[in-house]
Write a structure and sequence with these properties.
With 235 residues, this protein is α+β, with helices and mostly antiparallel strands. The chain has one helix and 14 strands. The structure holds FE2/S2 (inorganic) cluster (FES).
């Protein structure tokens, strides 16, 4: 019978049979397996993923390492500003005054309190986002008008979003160039007991504290002083 394999004629050459390209005859293609310069789509996407991961890791790790390293060493330079005679600051009072920050920076508003036998200087900058806090003589406490932050007489947080207490400044009392009185037990405070009539009050560098009133280098508004979140600031 014509067209059978038995007669030696291939089936696609038999009369009336389709003889064009067939799906079972795929185009030979170059896999570039031996070409080191050829970039496959998989290799390209892998490269993009690795590069993206590196950038992301750097964006997170660099600030963390930076803050971790600088936390212990960064801080304000020591400087002292004479804010007047000790006699201007009567006991059991808290007074608001502007104090030069030095270095061309704007003045800072400070609450200078002389209570419980010690002088303490508290910065009026809210520890949440930096709004100026106000002092209440009646309650001997501080409140922030922006988001409801509230602090007690020592600047410790009692309500609202502030992540740490109000910042403080170093304080000391001098007569001439000689310090008179002694450092108080609370961070930044000064006990002026025994100071002579010519004693003057000096306010020094700013620093931050935690809820236990342990001192830290000065932090920015919203910045934690302890815990893992401090490494994520300002994210
Ligand atoms: S800035 Fe003070 S509570 Fe937000």
């Amino acid at each position: 019978m014509a067209g059978t394999q038995d007669d030696g004629v291939p089936p696609n050459e038999q009369a009336g049979a389709y003889s064009g390209p067939r799906a079972v005859d795929p185009e030979p293609h170059d896999t570039h397996e031996n070409d080191p310069d050829y970039i496959t789509r998989t290799r390209f996407l892998s490269g993009v993923a690795v590069a993206g991961g590196a950038v992301l890791t750097g964006a997170i790790a660099v600030p963390i390492v930076g803050f971790a390293v600088t936390d212990a060493v960064k801080g304000e330079d020591e400087h002292w500003v004479d804010i007047g005679p000790l006699s201007d600051f009567p006991k059991d009072k808290t007074q608001s005054l502007a104090v030069s920050a030095g270095g061309g920076l704007p003045d800072r508003r400070v609450f200078l309190r002389y209570r419980d036998g010690v002088l303490m200087a508290i910065w009026n900058r809210c520890a949440h986002l930096g709004c100026p806090v106000t002092y209440s003589e009646g309650g001997d406490n501080y409140s922030c008008p922006c988001h409801g932050g509230a602090y007690n007489s020592l600047g410790q947080v009692t309500a609202g979003p502030p992540p740490r207490p109000l910042d403080r400044f170093d304080v000391k009392v001098v007569s001439g160039k000689k310090e008179v009185g002694k450092r108080g037990t609370l961070a930044g405070t000064w006990d002026p007991t025994g100071a002579p009539p010519d004693a003057r009050v000096l306010v020094g560098k700013a620093f931050s504290i935690d809820e236990k009133q342990r001192p830290y280098r000065i932090h920015g508004p919203g910045e934690e002083v302890e815990g893992i979140l401090k490494y994520l600031y300002p994210f």
